[in-house]
């Protein structure tokens, strides 16, 4: 038998017990608790769908196996829920949130209504790194991206903080595409109905994962045609669809594109407030990634055509921190690009 030195053995035993004690403490905390996932958008959107699928499986992987509930907190394209999480919600690790990729960057883009610093959040993980798209109804007559430079088209948008308003505004202001924005819709589900009713002709900023799920009926009916993909990198599923970066003419253009369009890399991310104790934050990050490999979750995702391209929480956190290092002149140009003078929706009589 190997004879361990007494001090070394005592140190090893102490470390092992400490690690076990931390794990037991996290499990003891979550046991019998209710854990909330706050969705910053209306029910029926892609974010809502991803959160509800996650909620049915992640509880098995969090120590103590808490009950998980989903709550919708729509408003200001995710800013309402993000402000709630940072300033009002529980600080003990019993809540996390998800919302559009533009919302966390609103403080960087000069929106004083964003009362938080996303660099301090516990970023739990990202379920799907995707791209957003510009798509149009058959009636719009937009068959290729070149048509957007020739023909005026109406697109539906949300609040100013959302990609469904910022993406079309940037395409118009940076590239000269003839896009007219009609904001005020609650989310992608409302815009889908507006397309079906003929109120608008399409949308720019709809995630590809939402097209695969919530917009599938429009695509299958031949009434939704994707002509442009917008994101940090071209998506393999859209090999024949032009990527927005092809229109960048300089290194500065690409940096502006990174800040406006590249932020799509946040995809379906989840975050918890900065005050969550480290042991619980790390446990949630691990539980998230373990859930992404859960056979039951994978089976459900396959059944409903939900695409998964997960990213660990620490990598998401690094992505956010890097964005905040963007040079000020680039940020100022990006801020001007996402500004818009919208056409107001007509009030129903």
Task: Report the CATH topology name of the largest domain.
Answer: D-Maltodextrin-Binding Protein, domain 2
Which regions have little confidence, pLDDT < 50, spanning 5+ residues?
Answer: 1-5
First-last Cα distance? 88 Å
Order of the strands making up the biggest sheet:
2-1-3
Rg from Cα: 22 Å
Q: Can you tell me the CATH class of the largest domain? A: Alpha Beta
Number of strands: 11
Domain count, please report it: 2
What best-fitting shape do the alpha-carbon axes yield?
A: globular
> Can you name the CATH architecture of the largest domain?
3-Layer(aba) Sandwich
CATH superfamily of the largest domain: Bordetella uptake gene, domain 1
Run of helices and strands: HEHEHEEEEHEHEHHEHEHHEHH
**Mean pLDDT over the residues:** 90
Structural class: alpha/beta
Describe it.
By secondary structure, the chain is an alpha/beta fold. The protein folds into 2 domains: 171 residues, D-Maltodextrin-Binding Protein, domain 2 (3-Layer(aba) Sandwich); 139 residues, D-Maltodextrin-Binding Protein, domain 2 (3-Layer(aba) Sandwich), CATH 3.40.190.10. It is built from 12 helices and 11 strands. A 3-stranded parallel β-sheet has the order 2-1-3, sandwiched between helices. It has a 3-stranded antiparallel β-sheet with strand order 10-4-11. Helix 4 links the parallel strand 6 and strand 7. The N terminus is likely disordered.
